[in-house]
Amino acid sequence: MMNEFDIIVIGSGLGGLETAVMLSKEGFNVCVVEKNRQVGGCLQSYVRHGYKLDTGMHYIGSLGSGQVLHQCFSYFGIMDRLRLKKLDEEAFDRIHYAGGVYDYAMGEEAFIETLSRQFPAESGNLRRYVARLSEVGHSISVDNFKKGYVSNPGALSYFGMSASGVIDSLIADERLRNVLAANSVLYGGVYDKSTFYEHAMISYSYMEGAYRCIDGSMHIATSLVDEIRKNGGTVRCDSEVERIMVDGDRVTGVQLRGGERIGAKHVISNMHPQLTLELLDKNKVIKKAFHTRIRSLENSYGLFTMYLLMKPGACPYVNRNEYIHERESVWYVRHDGPIDCCLISMQPMSDDERFANVISVITPMYIDELSEWSDTLPERRGEAYKAFKERKIAELLALMKRHGFDWSDKVEYIYSNSPLSYRDYTGTIDGSAYGILKDYHSPMTCLLSPRTKLQNLYFTGQNINVHGALGVTLTSVITCAEFLGMDYLAKKIGNY
Ligand SMILES: Cc1cc2nc3c(=O)[nH]c(=O)nc-3n(C[C@H](O)[C@H](O)[C@H](O)COP(=O)(O)OP(=O)(O)OC[C@H]3O[C@@H](n4cnc5c(N)ncnc54)[C@H](O)[C@@H]3O)c2cc1C
Questions:
Q1: What 3-state class would DSSP assign to 485?
Q2: Which of 164, 213, 310, 326 is 20 to 30 A from 32, comparing alpha carbons?
Q3: Domain ranges for the chain
Q4: CA dihedral defined by 6, 491, 438, 73, rounded to 10 degrees?
């Protein structure tokens, strides 16, 4: 089989597309193969009843001028084309907790001052907390890129620290501890597992610049595809990889569903590593112990997403996110009771920015809750599944109503997704929202190298390092550095 391409990228999620954009820009002949009919993975927007719904990108941090994601997106060639709305600076997130309402403001000083008004005795502690976030935030900076690296080597130590542990050690007030951890759904937060790195990286990136995509996040994916094609690359949809071919200690290409084979000098997988390993031809290079290690890693919980499709012009657009928590501890734990926490986010639309036409509401859900339907396929899960989703929708609506969010007379349709939908559409193990869970007890086990023992097979995407728009982008740079050298690539992005 001929090497048709220098590099095949399996999967067109943010990680796959960014990797392909950088490598095609640097002269590699790249082909992205995506199993779904459209590109984007979690960036996809899709239409129901004429409304555009986002799969999974409610807001994105570090997108202000001079900030890391802005710099990377500029280098990729897409920044100018993105349609973004900066969230309210005085309150980009609002936390509803234990009868109180608390705002996260943008900017370090504003964040401290805003919360200090309600927790005056904690003002000094808040300053120390923000200083810790800032240490992690600044470990990933455009200045570091200019020096030839993505993040300070010292930043790794924050993966070995507990998010809840650091918050609890810095903050004396129990209520404020919970207010600060209230966004932990953004990283599948678990009280005694989540790393301070993820908490700080994500919280800081929003604190410095939080944005929503106008008209959905899909245009990030399509802009990346345009760039790949402009650079001479190929992007193919409806092209599910069902086999990765191996010869000795090298991969030789992929076989698609239907039998077509595509040869390449290198293969980069944007799929979950467990799925990647399952598709590899039998070989002696990747040892059983590695398979066992990957299979034994826990994945983050999934999310149940409810979309409220609003009557035109009925619901004023609110430019911030609302987090509701009814339990004493905001850290999610499995329980049998009704839903008691959620994140509410409105999608801005260019047609009329005064009104929201879609409101997304997410809440954690482990796939075990759906075990009855684990062998079913989308749209064919049966009546009991529909009833389950109806029940969850009713619980979410009741929770929101208890906190003053009652839009019942303004909703035209309600649509929902469960972790099973994510499992079947984006191929994430157990319907996990963010892939491999990063556990501070064993950070080096959960963080994977983009390299594999097969000389020319690599990983990219959220499972390798950190998830989310920023985490996946940094991972893409780390993967591409395997081809281009970190010093060269980081400086090129930093000085762009
Ligand atoms: C509900 C939800 C809300 C979120 N909200 C935010 C947010 O507000 N902000 C933020 O920054 N992040 C958010 N995230 C996280 C963010 O969306 C992800 O971390 C990121 O998009 C993952 O990108 P990825 O490229 O690693 O993976 P994916 O987007 O999962 O891409 C993997 C791709 O591989 C393809 N694939 C799988 N198997 C095959 C195969 N055999 N052959 C070919 N292709 C295959 C899939 O179809 C998919 O396109 C959210 C996630 C979810 C689920």
A1: coil
A2: 213
A3: 5-83+216-297+437-494, 108-208, 301-431
A4: -80
Task: Tell me the CB-side half-sphere exposure of residue 433, using CA atoms within 13 A.
Answer: 23
Structure-token pair, residue 458:
């690599």
Q: Residues with Cβ < 8 Å from 234, sequence gap 6 or more?
A: 5, 30, 31, 32, 228
Residue minimizing CA distance to atom 7 of ligand 1 = 57
Query: What is the distance in A from the centroid of ligand 1 to the CA of 56?
Result: 7
**Cα–Cα distance between 431 and 429 in angstroms, integer?**
5
Q: What is the pLDDT of residues 15-31, one digit of tens each?
A: 999 999 999 999 999 99
Characterize the bridge pairing of strands 358-365 and 211-213. unpaired
- Architecture (CATH level 2) of domain 5-83+216-297+437-494: 3-Layer(bba) Sandwich (3.50)
Question: How many angstroms separate the alpha carbon of residue 426 from the centre of ligand 1?
Answer: 6
pLDDT of residue 352: 86
Which pTM value belongs to this model? 0.97
**Distance (Å, rounded) from C-alpha 471 to C-alpha 420?**
24
Question: Which residue, judged by its Cα, is nearest atom 27 of ligand 1?
Answer: 13
Q: pLDDT, tens digit, for every residue of 296-321? A: 999 999 999 999 999 999 999 999 99
Q: Which residues surround ligand 1 with Cβ inside 6 Å?
A: 10-16, 33-36, 41-43, 56-60, 240-241, 270-271, 275, 303, 305, 362, 422, 426-428, 433-434, 461-462, 467-469, 472
Tell me the C-alpha distance between 194 and 197, whole Å.
9
